[in-house]
Amino acid sequence: MMHTSSPGSEESKKNQTWQLYIKAERLMKGNAEEAKIYLDQAREMNTELGDPLLNALIVESLASYYEQSDKYENALKMANDAIVMFKQLSNSGPIAQLGNANGLISLGNTYTKLGKYKVAIVKPEKAVEILLKLGKTGKVHLGIAFGNMGYAYNLLKEYNKAIELFEEAFKISQMTGYKLEEARSLHNIGAAYYQMGKFQKSVEYCVKSARIFTEIGSKKGVSLSYGVLASSYDQLGHLNISERYHNICIEINHDMKQLSDLAIAYGNKGLFYYKISLAKFLNFSDANESLEKCIEAFKLAIQATDEILASLALDSNKTAFSDKFYRWYDCLTGPFNLLGRSTAALLFLNLGRAKILRHLVYRQVKDKEQDEGQSSFESSWLTIENREEKKRICVLSKDIQLLETNATVLFYNFNDAEILTIWESKSSTSRQELEDNIKKLLEKASVGLPRSYSFFKPSTAFHFENPNAQQLSSENAAEATNDNDVEDKDSRNNYRSPAKKSDTLCDLTKDTRSFLHRVLIDPVKSLIKETKLIIVPQSCIFFAPFSAFIDESGCLLSEKYQIQVISSIHALALSILASRSKKIGGSLFVGNPEVQLPSLLFAEEEVEYISSLLNAKPLTGRMATKSKVIDLMSNASIIHIAAHGQE
């Protein structure tokens, strides 16, 4: 017997599906995970109903969920899908046009989080064109669009333009009675004034925004406004008030279990104490108590980011998060150095790098008890807690076989004044001067790099967290966009063909390579007694071609030493320990795989020569496919790749 649903039951199911969607929308601001459950249920029920408008709205809300969850690729896809759906529903009238505009606003927000601010401005601009035609129907969303454009301009440091747009958003929110956008606009104006150094005006606006956020029950909004107030009062010299606001921010985010915001709140409190400590230290006063408070706050920030890093999926989102994660390790060098514990500072920096590398490269370890990496991290942390960092350095030195291999380790880092530190030896070379010379060398060697490459981004250490760094999510605006619409030229790769005349290239770069030897090797050459150099660089120094450095006699550094560049001593120690406990696997040699870049000269000859030494067959050209290389890597103990590098 065939069963058919009655019109009444179908209408009931449709109402139920709409109710699930509405419930998800209400929850999205405060409980995105629960909202996602309702959206999935609504989407499943609508598969049978086939309501195209409801389907588009659900997909748009899913874009909002993914944006809030920092899953930007999914957010972009969902928002673009929703825009296509709404365009196909042109006969649905204003609702479809409104949905299209919301999709564009959503895309702008996601691109803002990805740091593509110019694209982030273009998207809501297109939304504004649509919303102005809708009149009163689009008023609320028009205010949201203006606010989001202002936020992107603020990040571009065009503060006056940003404030102008925030004020437009504020006027519209007052007309529509949309309290969340009203509070958000006031907060953003206050944050922009903070960036301009107008701290009293910043306080004026953020006190108003915090009051409205409190009235409407937005804890996240209250936390963000209090964060700006804490920084503003600090700049105005009202330290007790500033400390109180820092503590309230921590309490709010702890209650909400917002780990990312909690880490920032702890980190900002650490920076607050560091500033107090530094002032006392320079005045020859006792700064120990403030420094200990500073270290404790940074450690709590690290614990919060540790939890986030462990839960992230292995994708580009984890890579993007790593910069924020490492920041607090970098900040800890300041108080440790002021306490005379430079070894602890170095150990912490190494620990941070090793953790990032581990989580980026390795899969989750199933057997926690046999997790050598985690055990090593915990040992380092514990020794620093017990002030036994020098013992831990000795253990690591044994692990990496320093004595057996006649190696010297050089650890490079930039201190709080952006001055280069090489282990415990000081150099007067600034980060900018060094970075400029490395860029010059790469340009002469015809090596192009994306402007947005992470190692060339300015350090954020020792500056208060931008109080406008996190924008409040708009209530009804999902976030995502179409990459085909606008190309972000600032983040575009710009690789060029390799230089062909090596002799000419050597002449062109000689002065620069000599300069790099003077600032990176000469200050510590008296410490180098062995035949091998293990170099642990930071930021732009990763791109310095150490082997090609030239000393005062014209001798290459590689002619004197065997050079190894690593990201972290901890990471090297772990790899050595792992190699001792495992059987030697095969070898993998990859040369000049076919990609959308010019052929890399001599790459194939390089791998053919090296592989011949081990009687191995290399993968070159078309044979070196991504899937084949990844498949063979898991069983290889020796891996050599000669190819273009790309972020």
UniProtKB/TrEMBL annotation:
<dbReference type="InterPro" id="IPR024983">
    <property type="entry name" value="CHAT_dom"/>
</dbReference>
<feature type="compositionally biased region" description="Polar residues">
    <location>
        <begin position="472"/>
        <end position="481"/>
    </location>
</feature>
<protein>
    <submittedName>
        <fullName>Tetratricopeptide repeat 28-like</fullName>
    </submittedName>
</protein>
<dbReference type="Pfam" id="PF13424">
    <property type="entry name" value="TPR_12"/>
</dbReference>
<feature type="region of interest" description="Disordered">
    <location>
        <begin position="472"/>
        <end position="500"/>
    </location>
</feature>
<dbReference type="InterPro" id="IPR019734">
    <property type="entry name" value="TPR_rpt"/>
</dbReference>
<dbReference type="Pfam" id="PF13181">
    <property type="entry name" value="TPR_8"/>
</dbReference>
<feature type="domain" description="CHAT">
    <location>
        <begin position="516"/>
        <end position="646"/>
    </location>
</feature>
<dbReference type="Pfam" id="PF12770">
    <property type="entry name" value="CHAT"/>
</dbReference>
<dbReference type="InterPro" id="IPR011990">
    <property type="entry name" value="TPR-like_helical_dom_sf"/>
</dbReference>
